[in-house]
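Um, can you check?
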Amino acid sequence: MYATPIFKAAGLDPTGVSVYIVSDNSLNAFVAGGQKLFINTGLLLKADTPEQVMGVMAHESGHIAGGHLSRVHDQLRNASAISILSTLAGVAAGVAAGRADVGAAAIMGGQNVAQRNFLAYSRTQESSADQAGVKFLTEAGISSRGMLNFMKKLEGQELLSTSSQDPYLRSHPLTMERVDFLANFVANSPLKDAKVSANLYERHARMRAKLYAFTNQLRNTLRAYPESDTSIAARYARAIAYFRDSQLEPSLKIIEGLIAEEPKNPYFEELKGQVLLEFGRAADAVPPLKESVELSGGAPLIRLLLAHAMIETGDPSLLEDAKSNLIGVLSRERGNSSAWRFRAIVENRLGNEGEASLSQAEYSLLSGDRQAASYHAVQAERKLKKGTATWLRAQDILNATNPEAQDKQDAATEASQ
């Protein structure tokens, strides 16, 4: 719910913008590699209200709409999400964005990557993005106060040394003129005191609780969300904290209570399945994950978790269902390397050697291992029927990983013409 109204107001197709959450405690957000918006977990945890996150998204959408990405280094313009970020850490899609089908939202590793890829926007570009951002927010019926309050969070850092400042301030120059513009705009806006729905505030609280519990030790989570706090967000945090501390029973007890209270919440079922899977109870994890997939409308990362659980059961009768779920994931997220890795396992167990090799080649290519990708593509080419779509894809991977072969093929094509 955060992103969609803003993207629409900016004239962007919500399904064409991918939202990624970077596992980094520093406060930052940036756009790169086309219509890809990256938000650090540190920013989400420090955002007191959903309007502050929306303000950041509106500002970053201003950079996209303003064509500022054309000034980014070539490697950033052409980079895929896989090359920018590294490993999946497993927080479900849709929690931060509010819906699972607005791009892909996933907690991902690579804390140092963001530092290398920050966009050094000029002050002119920043002012332009602010003006576009408040326009988008207004058109979406959202107050710009959140953007103003976010900027005020940064004001106190201007006197700090550069090394002590949050990356957002270093990559997005803050000026008094920008703050004054936002303050004046909010003061004169009919939406100045408007708030988004109470439901979104609750989702924001749960999102922060989830991120906090996944990124902190048990004692810290219990300090932030003590047992005396019986809110759903607090119980959600404690369930995750006990799970991460290898305490299965207290975690499951809380989760069961949450499910009883909100039986149609896909993320509680997902958490139950994840907990059971990681405690070695894959067969028990399948039913809640199936329910979660259905309730979420087929959220890709939940389908991926379900496929993983099905594979881990060792039950051959579940392999076709696992494959179906992985195909569903890849139909929406072709660049999901984990899905290709799991598909390689499934295809191998089903005896589909060519498909298994091709899936392994796709995984290796996304992981940056060109040598392995080429090797597996050769194996796939030998085992797949010539002329089929899969065989042609193996050829594509070979050409992508072997420039000399591509040059020879191009020369042969030219000679035949």
User: Anything to note?
Assistant: The two ends are 54 Å apart (CA to CA).
